Every structure is written in structure tokens, then in C-alpha cells.
Fold:
Amino acid sequence: MRQSAYLIRTNRNESEDLFVANNSLPFFWLTLISEKDLERIDNNIQHSSEPPTIRIGRQAAITNGLSSIPFIEECFPDRLRLYQDFISYLDKNLLPDDDMVLDVFSLAPEGGTTHFLQQLKEELQAVEMYDIEKIEGAYTDNDITALIGHGHFPGINVALYEQTFIPIDPLSGEEDKIQDGPSLTAAIVIILAGIIILYVPWQGYKNDDINLAVTCCLIISLSVLLYGCKQLLVAVRHKAIKKTFQP
Structure:
């Protein structure tokens, strides 16, 4: 049975279907949301009998989309131009008071809304960790509608984007198609920097001299450490992925 999903702009006065997709969720739609948005849906499912939708503010959707550009640029550079123009298209066509609504749960198997929600979370986590193995299915099809659905964009320019697509086969052994990922050495340096900065609040704690400067140093050091750990995980994961492309 054919199931349709919709990417909708809506406000107090009107709603408009920007894109529609049949039987599958276009990957570019997924990049407009975050795990927190899905967690809200998870909570609402338990208290509502209505079919859920994912609703997010205009600016949040654009911000989420822009944050995915480094992933697209590194792992799938042939899709980068299409992706950037897709985000620009949304930015130009959404009004300041618009929200974006992803009406996608019709794609879930009957009674499998919770499982479908978990799948979406795992794909978002895969993007964050540059884990192309878990989402490569979204890129194996050169048909642009598999990435964005059917809509006015890209219109007559569709042929220009299709010509830039270079199919990537994770089993092909073509290592040169995988760009260099985050540096393992840089991640370790960042972690060491965080540890060094942590020395200041540690000394303040030992001397019972807890003030604003010490507190700020603590916050900065913890932020640097967390960022360094995240980059380390991504670098290790990326290195493991590259090994799968080696002959």
C-alpha cells in the first residue's frame, strides 16, 4: 500500500505542503530535526491518540540543517551543492513565524510508531558520529526525489544536480572517495588543553578560592574536554570506516 509523507510549512493563518514523498523518508528532511524533537514526540505519543507529527520552529530547522553541512561535505561531497541549495530554498520560502512540520509517521509499520521513532533517532546519531554505514541507504539512489521528495525545488535545475552525483558503494574499496575525517591527534591535543585549563579551578578549589573567574575556567575546561572527547570518538569511528574501504 502506498504511504505518503509530507514536509509542511505552517503558521496561524495557513499551511502549505512544500514536499511530498512516497513510501520512504527523504534523508534531507531528517537533517532538519534533532533528537530532542523526537524525544518530545516520544513523550506525546503516550498521552495522545492522534497520529504524531514532528513540529519545529523555522529557525531551529534551518540551524539543524546547516549543522549537517560538514557531514555532507566530508562523506558525500557530490550531494553538497544540492543540500546547500535545499536549505537555502527553505530559508527563502519560510516566513518568520512559520513552523516546519514533518508528517512522516504514516511510513511507520502498523503499530510500530515507537520503533520507527527509534530508527529516526539512530539515524540522527549516525550523522553526528559520521557513521555512514548506518545511513548509506539514503545515498545509494541518484534520484533527487529520494533525498528531498517531490516539490517545486529544484525545478528545471534538476539535471544540473544529477550530473554531479557520484554513486558511492561502501563495498567498492575505493578509499579515495572517503575524505579525511577529524584528526585523532587534534582531538587528543584538545583534551589535553581541557585538562590543563582544569588546573585553574582545581587550584581554586584547593585554596577555597571559588570565584567567578574560577567558575568560568571550570565551565570552559569542561566544554573543551567534552568537545575533545566527541572529536576523539568521531575520529576513531571515521578511521574504522576508512578501513572498510581499503582493498
User: Anything to note?
Assistant: The chain has a mean pLDDT of 81. The chain has two domains: 4-168, 177-244. Residues 177-244 form one domain. The beta strands are 4-10, 15-22, 54-57, 99-103, 150-151.
